[in-house]
Structure prediction request, 282 residues.
Amino acid sequence: MYTLIDGKNIAAQMRLQIKRGVDAYRQKYNREIGLAVVMAGDNPASQVYVRNKIKACEEVGINSANYCYPEIISQTELEKHIKNLVADDGYDGILVQLPLPAHINATEVLKLIPAEKDVDGFSAENIGKLCAGEESIVACTPNGVMKMLEHCNINVAGKRAVVVGRSNIVGKPMAMLLLNASATVTVCHSKTENLREECLNADILVAAIGKAKFITADMVKKGAIVIDVGMNRDENGKLCGDVDFENVKEKCSFITPVPGGVGPMTITMLMYNTLQAAVLRR
Ligand code: NDP
Prediction:
């Protein structure tokens, strides 16, 4: 028997807590918390993500402003806008929705956001602090996974954790968070030899690959905790994860579904990070 980790429910509970934190902040400091969301171009997926982020802000009582710039905006012009937002005391957090248009150097744009307003946790300073085990703003998705594990009273310490994927936004910070929580961590990627053997060692298996149903039942140890970060479309265009859920679930002690697993936690953690950024600034 497996337990389904209900990300929607955990996220809803967390949003209530965050709302209470935002209310307490307002009372204590007599000011609102502000988040600036910047996008350039009209990527339809980005538009949906941004809309959901603005909606979540409304839900928890964070003031949000959405700055949409045209696809043809120049690097200089975009950087000028970001610098103005950084200097604006009304914003505790600044989020640049990726991807930016192809002609824009996103790394240079992101570098303009100081660590204390970097609510995505992507800045070198925040990543460095995470590695050093210092308090920092942590990337939303992996931090959301840790909150899910906590919520399920899963003690990570001493467990063998295998993270498949090594991106800067998911795999690497995920591995670091698990390591900081005293798991014994292996990070796998496209060049890993014997991926199946590595995965079979996992007490906790985190899939962040971006390939539909890639993790199959023969790669999962009996009783493993399986966290599926992936968001893909299957052969019928239906949303699915990196894990072959239907065939894997019976082998697990805990498993996250897609949709309704890690996804709802990501935006919730953005709200969490924005509150944290506001509190850290005071
Ligand atoms: P990236 O494409 O940046 O990284 C994918 C990683 O998977 C890479 O490290 C890559 O290895 C590895 N990989 C690819 N193919 C294989 C393979 N055959 N065997 C082993 N490893 C492999 O993706 P992201 O980290 O940005 O995202 C991963 C997934 O998570 C995507 O489906 C994305 O949509 C989803 N996602 C979901 C979020 C949510 O809120 N639920 C938020 C963010 C992402 P290598 O480095 O060697 O190329």
